[in-house]
Amino acid sequence: MGSFRKALTDVTLFPYWLDNPLDPAPLDHLVGRADAELLIVGGGFTGLWTSILAKQADPNRDVVIIEAGKVGHGASGRPGGIVSTSVMHGLSNAKRIFPTDLTALEKLGKINLDGWAKTIADNGIDADVEWSGEMTVAVASSHLEGLREEFELAQEYGHDAVLLGRDDTRKQLNSPTFEGAVWARDRSGTVHPAKLAWGLKRLARQLGVRIYEHTRMIKVEDVGSALEIVTAEGRIKAPKVLFATNAWSAGHKNIRRRVITSRDRVLATEPLTNEQMSRIGWENRQGVYDTRTQLNYMRLTKDNRIVYGGHVDYHFNNNVDPPQALQIENYERLAGYFFKTFPQLGDIKFTHAWSGPIDLTMRLAVHFQRYYGGKGLYVGGYTGFGVTASRFGAAMGLDLIDGKDNPSLELDFARTMPNWVPPEPARWIGAKLTMYALNDVDEKGGWRKAWIGLCQRLGFPI
What we know:
There is one protein chain. By secondary structure, the protein is an alpha/beta fold. It contains 13 helices and 20 strands.
């Protein structure tokens, strides 16, 4: 672990994306009483997109967002920032959970991505978008069959994808662990997530959305025709409330019966020199996922840092702010995966390390939970793949809470919810055992493989 600790010596335990002078000053918090036609709880991607879509559809609609901290400083300011058309955590997962919806979901995903891109371009949101594609890389020869199946599925649904052998994969991104890849080249790439959130915040305000930051929801009161949200220093009343609370699962006590708060870890390197870049290639700058059971993802920033994430964990009782997040030892295993992937970068150092909450469900994809007689709606469950899918979730959630006649809401994905998850302490015991097995199952197999197989047969999305 010595070399890993050396690379982590001067690391800042804060998200690279948010450590930026462009981070706007906080807005005022709510004081006193207020009213809204549509109240959105949560100022991340889902909340921002919901407010924008609502105002674009009806400029006179009174829309308010309340955010517990600062806009974009929750899950939306912490991901890898890989852009995709998928609204269901990838083609294979969509086929697993909604095979009869798959054709419609693929169409909806492409429409969503195009709308996402158009909003950014039309409104001058500078979010470092690069349309470089996304690449799934096999890290063992035994993974190549699954990789080919993914490629054939992508071809079947009209994606511009190519299947690469080991040599061609390493020409794209040189790692001794890569045995092959599928490179999807259309409607995918990378984005700076915090800049995106700040740009959407600006757009929402231009459209007339009122945003209150540092305004945490304390409780919800059902007052008949409306809900009243109580905050530390105020109350806000609205006939419709959309809970865009992601892994925090706030809004109703039953949300957590279907949502687990897991966390992944992320590292950002110092900017690579031209000589260091020449060691790894990566001229096409794709966003990359590997095929480890406990997957890692990686991408380049505008100034050629490598952002490298993975190593998901769970903390008792859905803890969204565990003390381990601020312990540098918590990132050593991930640093080890990084240097195994890129041993030729042994002279690189990390500048930032962070972890972030992920709203994990049994279907790994967005879902909708209705409460308070339909006046309240929770939208979440992206499982870390919400950078673009959050716009889709916002659009569907807005139509649901407004009672719109949208044929897409008749599809299985909109009418169903993820399976129930066991309560504590069974949740913690099962999650810790599973995470422990996932860390080494690809290398060690044995009981770990048997346990993961049992989880899969029980329907857990591994």
